[in-house]
Amino acid sequence: MPDNTGTSRRNFLKISAIGLAVAPLTQLVMSTAVQAKQVPRHLPAEAAALSEDDPQAKALHYKEDATDANIAGRKEGQFCSNCQLYTGQPGEAWGPCAIFSYRTNPHANKPFVVSATGWCDAWGPRASTR
To answer: Domain containing 27: what range?
Structure first.
């Protein structure tokens, strides 16, 4: 019976050498792709911005910046920041929304937040605090 130990060791060393050579290149390519993504302004480190391309956001016609958009159904002065579902702090650019609060970004493993200047079809007036 032939002894394949030498051949197996050689193959292992070849594959290991190729893997060690390719690993830094993979890291370089992956970090470049991540750096190219634009980071939203003043986004809290413990949260992930809800994308307008998210299926639920699309269904609710969510827009990250309602000041620049002509959105059907939206009335002047309606923003996430003055919606009853928005629980962000006054003056902050991003905050949690009850509609999306149970979800997390699967890539970042962080909860989604919405823009204070955003808007969606679920908008409802915040109760007055007199």
So the answer is: 1-37
